[in-house]
Amino acid sequence: METTTQHKESGILRFLLPSGHSVTDKVWIPFIILFIITVLEFVVAFTVPKSGARVLIFVLMTLAKAFYITAYFMHMKYERMSMALIIISPILLLMALFVALWYEGAKLFQLFFGG
Amino acid sequence: MAAVTTDIQNVSSPWSGGRSPFGNVSWGKLMMWVFLLSDAFTFGSFLVAYGFIRFKAPDWPDPEVVFSEAPFLGHGYPLVFVGLMTFILIVSSVTMVLAVEAGHHRDRKGAALYLFYTILGGVAFLSCQAWEWTHLIMGGTTLTGNPFGAPQFGQFFFLITGFHGSHVASGVILNLIVLIQILRGDFDRINNYNRVENIGLYWHFVDLVWVFVFTFFYLI
């Protein structure tokens, strides 16, 4: 991850995944993206009717926000790959447990209350 | 045989031995990450339990009904107040990044100033949470029941936001300690601001957890 070669991205990628070391790249662009995603969350909360798809949209937006906080604010994008992997790989197991037990809860709901 | 051994020794994998696989990362930073990982599992298990109970409950309260009030505005403003809290925490994360940046440039005044803003953000967030808790408790939400629906709502809400709030509170205290050390010139004397970076990681983690709490308690 610690690349010394500075290659210039162009267009949308330059904005969505900045890789420079300037304050604009490491602070302001991620902040603007986090702000936009939060505003979009409110838009979805007030316009989209409650459904499974809505939950999925919220979860994806949350994961996107988590990515920007970890990668840029916590500097993970600029750390060694070996360190990033030992921190991030256990989190994947946690997410698997998450999905499994939420699904289990929904199944128990069907069992108890029908539907 | 000898040639093979040489080949293995020449493999330039981070894990090939003889040096730290994590490069020149400081021990404090590495240990902070390991601590944050364990903390992520604590919060994760709370949220897993919450999800399990929530999807099993037939009458889980609608967050847009429970959190429909804001100070000075009154009824009928769902999510406005929690939106403000989210914004405060994100902004305090930004000022923390700027403090770490200033530390990298050995800018003592800049680091102290931005860390001070971060502390202000933390205190503002805690005040908002105190208002919200008071409001909910006055409205009849307790650990054993609430007027909105499933009684477990109060237990999980107070457990998870309380655990998060205690993290914010300890973060504010740790930030204050580091601020005093910056002002005393401790980090100029040892010529590194690593501690600002480590405490910054903790602060961002608190923000990260709030992102999840916000989604799972207030939006879904």
Helix share bin of chain B: over 70%
Regions of chain B with pLDDT < 50 over 5+ consecutive residues? Answer: none
* Biggest β-sheet description of chain B: none
Summarize the main sheet of chain A.
none
Treating each run of at least 4 consecutive H or I residues as one helix, how many helices of chain A? 4
Largest contact between chains: A-B, 45 and 47 residues
Task: Look at the helices and sheets of chain A and give the structural class.
Answer: mainly alpha
| Structural Rg of chain B | 22 Å
N- and C-termini, Cα separation of chain B? 62 Å
**What is the element string of chain B, with H for helices and E for strands?**
HHHHHHHH
Strand content of chain B: under 5%
Counted by DSSP, the helix tally of chain B is 8
- What value does the average pLDDT of chain A take? 85
Oligomer: heterodimer
How would you characterize the overall build of this protein?
The complex is a heterodimer of chains A (115) and B (220). Chain A is mainly α and 115 residues long. Chain A has four helices and no strands. The longest helix of chain A is centred in the last third of the chain and has 33 residues. The relative contact order of chain A is 0.09. The radius of gyration of chain B is 22 Å and the shape is globular. Chain B is an all-alpha fold. Helices cover 74% and strands 0% of the residues of chain B. Chain B is built from eight helices and no strands. At the A-B interface, helix 2, helix 3 and helix 4 of A face helix 2, helix 4 and helix 8 of B.
Structure in a nutshell:
The complex is a heterodimer of chains A (115) and B (220). Chain A is mainly alpha-helical. Chain A has 4 helices and no strands.
Give the helices and strands, then pairings:
The complex is a heterodimer of chains A (115) and B (220).
Chain A: H1 11-16, H2 23-47, H3 52-73, H4 81-113
Chain B: H1 2-10, H2 27-56, H3 63-66, H4 80-104, H5 108-138, H6 152-184, H7 186-189, H8 194-219
Helix pairs in contact in B: 2-6, 2-8, 4-5, 4-8, 5-6, 6-8
